[in-house]
Amino acid sequence: MSDPVFWHRLQFGFTAAYHYLFPQLTMGLALFIVVFKLLARRTGKEAYQDSARFWIRIFGINFAVGVVTGIPMEFQFGTNWARFSARTGGVIGQTLAMEGMFAFFLESTFLGVLIWGERKFGRKVHDLAAWALFLGTWLSGYFIIATNAFMQHPVGYRVAADGSLQIADFFAFLFNPWALVQYAHNMIASVVTAAFVVTAVGALYALRDVHAEQVKIFLRTGIIVGLAASVLVAFPTGDTQGKMVAKHQPAALAAMEGRWHSGTWAEINIIGQPDVARRRIDNPIRVPGILSFIAYGSFDSMVKGLSEIPMDDWPPNVELLYYSFHIMVGLGTIFIAIMGLAAFLLWRKRLAKARWMLWILMLAFPFPYIANTAGWMTAELGRQPWLVFGLMRTRDGASHLVHGGQTVFTLLGFAGLYVVLGFLFLYLIMREIAHGPIPHGGPAAH
């Protein structure tokens, strides 16, 4: 615990995990806002416009808190991870700058138009601003993912004479195959979060017997989109990313499943507890061959175990990686079941009377946040002990000038600040939900 690298990692992990609670909803909500706008145009029903305005307000609160919680991460690149920034800044600085200049400013500018500009600019400009917000939000997500993908699977770079990494092929770096797959998986996961939140608010209003029009809109749209996204986040996006991990990070794959020995017909553990000291899984429930199929597309494929990989290249926390992966996969399976059952009841026109299902939908909204956090933990823990996979180890990227005591001090400060921000955020969100999608009486469509 006296190792400053441990505290640097803990601080960045804490701030990143807390920050991502907010963008994962805004990225998914951007899509829902566009959908509500399209349905308003197609049907001419003002209830869809009222729905869009309501979620724009929720988006704005999430966006503001997301910006505040994201700023400390930028500073940590220059303080806690100065050597990493000095060596890789010539590469990852490209996408981080693009995220700030092109995506973030596009997103924030048009968010202002959406919140305050409908009466001034009219419905058409308001609708176009929704599309611009969607574009900016999803572009922002791509540039961040491309940065992370370089750390997972570095391509398009060269090593300069001073040892720093520089861009050799910009388009190879920007369109890294890992980035394309990770982006699809991440963005669809954000849609899952938004779908569960939209559905939860609809279920709340249904249980309270208020906002009848929005109950129908939120439940129908949230369930349909949520079911599609829950399936897509598992297959093909999750499946494809699993195959990339198997190909490029075999130690991460072995640790994710607690696999110690190589062999064909590799099993997947439905449940079990990893015992690293004895190199085994206690109390396992296994399905043979599934890991081989997920990793390489056939049941008799060879899957490498950790015993054939040097221990210096193992993820340092096998237990946490194992549980993070299984929480992500387990919750993802539950999401398909919940949305599938809700869709069946919706199709049979029995959802409104199934109060038990409405309670499930209302209470389920925190779990996509947990699944997304577990998913990012899986990705980041699986990359360890590398900061840039195969090129720079984590211990070599930390600053020598910031000691552990300073990092713990600022970590406690961030934690206290985030508690205050969290209560403020919950108050503002609960106030908006209590107000509900009140009819706006804005300008007529033209």
Short overview:
With 446 residues, the chain is mostly helical. It has one domain (4-435). It contains 16 helices and six strands.
Structure description:
A two-stranded antiparallel sheet has the order 1-2. Strands 3-4 form a two-stranded antiparallel ribbon. It is globular, with a radius of gyration of 23 Å. The chain is built from 16 helices and six strands. The protein has one domain. It has helices at residues 4-19, 23-43, 46-78, 82-116, 118-121, 123-152, 170-174, 177-208, 212-234, 237-248, 250-256, 290-296, 318-347, 355-363, 366-383, 404-435, and strands at residues 157-159, 165-167, 268-275, 280-287, 386-388, 392-393. The chain is 70% helix and 6% strand. By secondary structure, it is mainly α.
User: Largest sheet, if any?
Assistant: 2 strands, antiparallel
Q: Topology as H/E string?
A: HHHHHHEEHHHHHEEHHHHEEH
What's the structural domain tally? 1
Number of helices: 16
Tell me the helix content.
over 70%
What is the global morphology?
globular
Low-pLDDT ranges: 442-446
Class by helix and strand content?
mainly alpha
The tally of strands reads 6
Please tell me the overall pLDDT.
Answer: 92
Across the major sheet, the strand order is 1-2
Indicate the proportion of strand residues: 5-15%
Q: What is the rounded Rg?
A: 23 Å
Q: CA-to-CA gap between the ends? A: 63 Å
Key traits:
about 450 residues, mainly alpha, two-stranded antiparallel ribbon
Topology:
Blueprint: H1 4-19, H2 23-43, H3 46-78, H4 82-116, H5 118-121, H6 123-152, E1 157-159, E2 165-167, H7 170-174, H8 177-208, H9 212-234, H10 237-248, H11 250-256, E3 268-275, E4 280-287, H12 290-296, H13 318-347, H14 355-363, H15 366-383, E5 386-388, E6 392-393, H16 404-435
Antiparallel strand pairs: 1-2, 3-4, 5-6
